[in-house]
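SEQUENCE, STRUCTURE TOKENS:
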Amino acid sequence: MSGIYGNGVTLNEKMLDYLWARQEVTLNNITNDDTPGFKAQYITFEDEMRKRLVDASASRSPRQAVADAISASRLRLHTTRSETTKLDGNNVDVDQEQLELVRTAYEYQYILSSISNDISRLKSAARTF
């Protein structure tokens, strides 16, 4: 299907993987809210993905370069070193983590909807033949 949609499906698939990982890390933070000394973690991937895609679009064969950029992008796991407001050294802000969980769920749902729409258009086009 990537031949029909270019790199769109591959990009959406990679985004879903990243969002799923972000959701797991956020849930782990919430789970460890009461763990003494636990430091919250977070995942980033958007900036690296954007940079790789911009660089790839400037190449001589952008379609393949974009495909390579998508597959080469990686997520990064960071540990928050901010000051803690808790006496036990834990720095998890449950309100912030729940907000991040909802935001990630909405992004995930949006990407799923995008893939579903692409497949629906393909099915509709195939019916006309």
Summary: The beta strands are 41-44, 76-79. Residues 52 and 72 are 8 Å apart (CA to CA).
